[in-house]
Specification:
Keywords: Hydrolase
Protein name: Alpha/beta fold hydrolase
InterPro entries: AB_hydrolase_1, AB_hydrolase_fold, FrsA_esterase
Shape: globular
Distance between the termini: 13 Å
Pfam families: Abhydrolase_6
CATH topology of the largest domain: Rossmann fold
Number of helices: 9
GO molecular function: hydrolase activity
CATH architecture of the largest domain: 3-Layer(aba) Sandwich
Structural class: alpha/beta
CATH superfamily of the largest domain: Alpha/Beta hydrolase fold, catalytic domain
């Protein structure tokens, strides 16, 4: 809702929704996260095109946090989107990448690495409440029976070989002190071949935390300025954001 209100104030129509792995969908319907998020977004676009207030040429999609992977993934295959926003950009959510720098490669297969990965993850969980929450929440939202199962279920969550299929203008946001996905916005930006923008938020602006929590007025202002420009907003004509 932190963006929805700002969207309405700027004259946009706005729809928010939960998909597999999120909110009531995981808690009530027991549907876990899936990597092929276009299967979630395409029905949403289909629905929007039935609404008389929707301009089919100006539908934008924004994803926050893990949505910084999900939205670009959807945009790579759902080409009716006019713009995509990744806040903040996520190139890979593979659990096997945990604790490594973005340019490091994973050596060996999961079966050979299983025991070490389990121990490594447990050690990190003992040291950090953030890591413990991330692992336990991940097991819940992916319906994983173990850390190794979580590793296997997150392996497809990468934009490698996918990001270059995005055609619509894409905004990648980056928080200077993001403690979840440091370095990944730049990775995603570099992999894009569509019209693209990298928008950085800094500590000097008070906007350096994950998804710019604490500086949402600034974030919304810059976001919708970009979207106005990208979608060629005409005075008096509302746009549409999915």
């Amino acid at each position: 809702m932190q963006v929805a209100m700002a969207a309405l104030q700027r004259g946009y129509n706005c729809i928010t929704f939960e998909g597999p792995g999120q909110g009531a969908v995981i808690r009530e319907q027991q549907l876990p996260f899936r990597n092929d998020w276009e299967k979630v977004i395409t029905p949403v676009v289909d629905y929007l095109l039935t609404r008389p207030e929707v301009d089919p040429q100006r539908i934008a999609l924004m994803g926050m946090s893990l949505g910084g992977y999900l939205a670009p993934r959807a945009a790579a295959f759902e080409h009716r989107l006019a713009a995509c926003i990744a806040n903040d950009g996520v190139f890979s959510f593979k659990f096997s990448d945990m604790g490594r720098e973005p340019d490091e490669e994973f050596e060996g297969d999961l079966n050979n690495q299983a025991f070490n990965m389990e121990d490594f993850a447990r050690d990190l969980m003992d040291q950090s409440t953030n890591v413990r929450w991330a692992v336990e929440n991940g097991m819940f939202t992916y319906k994983a029976d173990s850390i190794i199962d979580l590793v296997e279920k997150t392996e497809p969550f990468t934009l490698e070989g996918v990001a270059d299929k995005i055609k619509c203008p894409t905004l990648v946001c980056e928080a200077e002190n993001d403690h979840f996905f440091a370095g990944q916005p730049q990775q995603l930006y570099d992999a894009l071949t569509c019209p693209k923008s990298l928008m950085k938020f800094t500590a000097d602006e008070g906007a350096e935390e994950h998804c710019h929590i604490g500086a949402l007025l600034l974030f919304n202002h810059r976001l919708f300025d970009w979207l106005d420009h990208t979608l060629h907003l005409k005075e008096g004509k509302p746009l549409n954001q999915a």
